[in-house]
Design goal:
This protein is mainly α and 134 residues long. The protein is built from five helices and no strands. Helix 4 runs antiparallel to helix 5. The model has no long low-confidence stretch (mean pLDDT 84).
Length: 134
């Protein structure tokens, strides 16, 4: 349970170390796997299906439309990244257990430091990939 100040309250309930996955997720994965395997070509059909034209042509759009979509996504990623760097930043405050010797203090992430979390590295690399392949 987390309070408004970010400090965690200790619960006396037993912590569950491991658990099986939810039944609905297992059923969904099994049904999706059956459908996808059923749609695969047989070994007799594979030579007819896997041709150079099939593997090198777009399924829904042409190469120009694909390049425009990639460049638009890259522009969006760059715009969001610039807004993140130029914005007010954010100040996450980690919480620790009571017996920890670490002090809970806000971490100042402003400017280029706001790009330090790993998910933002991935976001920037995704935008770079779209920009270079567009």
């Amino acid at each position: 349970m987390v309070t408004t100040r970010g400090q965690s309250k200790r619960c006396d309930a037993e912590v569950l170390a491991s658990a099986p996955p939810p039944y609905h997720s297992v059923i969904f994965v099994l049904l999706a796997g059956i459908v996808f395997v059923k749609c695969l070509p047989t070994l007799d059909q594979i030579d007819d299906v896997a041709t150079i034209e099939t593997l090198s042509s777009g399924l829904f759009v042409g190469p120009m439309a694909l390049a425009i979509m990639r460049l638009l996504i890259a522009a969006f990623v760059i715009g969001v990244t610039v807004m993140r760097v130029m914005g007010p930043g954010f100040f996450p405050q980690p919480t620790y257990l009571k017996q920890s010797k670490l002090k809970s203090a806000p971490i100042r992430l402003v400017g280029l430091r706001s790009l330090s979390p790993f998910t933002l590295w991935y976001w920037v690399l995704l935008g770079l990939t779209f920009a270079l392949t567009g």
